[in-house]
Amino acid sequence: RHRCPHKxxxxxxxxxxxxxxxxxxxxxxxxxxxxxxRSLKPKQEYQVHRGKxxxxxxxxxxxxxxxxxxxxxxxxxxxxPKTGKIELGTTYQKDYNAHKIQPVTLVRPLERKHTxxxxxxxxxxYQDDYRSWEVQRREPSxxxxxxxxxxxxxxxSTTFQDDFVPRELNPRQSFKPPCVAKLSDVPFDSxxxxxxxYIAHQLEPKFIRSKEEYKPSNQPFEDLTTxxxxxxxxxxxxxxxxxxxxxxxGSNAHFNGVTExxxxxxxxxxxxxxxxxxxxxxxxxxxxxxxxxxxxDYVKHEISxxxxxxxxxxxxxxxxxxxGNTTTKEDFKAWGSCRQEIMKKQQEIPKPTGRFYxxxxxKSHYIPHQIIPAQSFKPVHxxxxxxxxxxxxxxxxTEYIPKKQETCPANYPSPPGYVYVNTDSEGHKFFRQxxxxxxESNSNPIPKEVAVLx
Length: 454
Known about the structure:
- By secondary structure, this protein is mostly loops.
- Helices cover 13% and strands 4% of the residues.
- It has helices at residues 23-27, 58-62, 91-95, 125-129, 159-163, 193-197, 226-230, 260-264, 293-297, 327-331, 361-365, 395-399; strands at 418-423, 428-433, 449-453.
- The chain has a 3-stranded antiparallel β-sheet with strand order 1-2-3, with no helix packed on it.
- It is extended.
């Protein structure tokens, strides 16, 4: 298919009119008498109101004016004072009894008035009221410890060594009574309320239901279905396939295995990268001095191991065996008791003692019957031969006319059967057909002129 681009190369003029020449326009020309259908869809435009706008609003139409009447003025009456005397008595004055109250005596001392010509008394209250007692100083009872420097290294004893006196551990005597189970001499009474109150009743004989005997039906089983009754096969030949034959298109030409990539991109000669040689290690001359500053300046001193200051605890070294009794072991001792037997009810139905025959109710009562296969009423799927020929004609076969695929004349630089007319401003060459005729295979008319883009 060929299509004219909207922006081709302009070689004649710089007009901006688009080119509408396409294959669709060539094959399907426009009819002059028939106009295209008009669209009934309303246009999305603002509809301007042509009439005159009224100045009536909802408030103006609904509002009803009322006559305004002045509010009546109330004449204030003249104040006339009442005659007589106002009784100012209250409930409080009536119920409250007044008591005589003496004036409160001041606890605060009288203020001293200093005279101007006299001497200022500067004695404070604390010094005047709190005077020191004549008490002799008590001699301290603290024992004076005269410090004597030690003669040995780390010879002073610590406060823990001076004040701590090792004592032997004396375990306290336990006054807790021993937890021993007291055994009774009275024999155990094993009577319970269940044993005394339970009365064994005799069971009634079990009701055995007789088994009903199976009675087969005398009438045969009808296995006919609606499909078997109503279905009837129609004779006829098998339908032939209308699918066209899949003809393989082949070529005897030799395949050239060279691609565009192999043709354009040839292998290049690449040189190997330069290998850089490593320098040979040369050890430095002379011997290495391993003496450091610490080795040269360090002076070794002979020091005896430090003696532990912690006092030796002689109370813990006891040769007696370890007593592993704890409070829990002494108070919570295991009781010598045996597990009580389970009280089971005696079985009233005795267990069978004979041999097990492995015979079930199904095996004893089952009666095997001969299986009769159901008769099939389905018709036999057999092809009934028919002498009449099969009418394999279809609407597709009768009305279908194969169309010949023709090459578009615009693919040729000079189309055969056409004469060159002119070239427009878009760069299209127009050709005219020599003998305009209608094609047999296609009802569409052949265009009189063909545009070719060069």
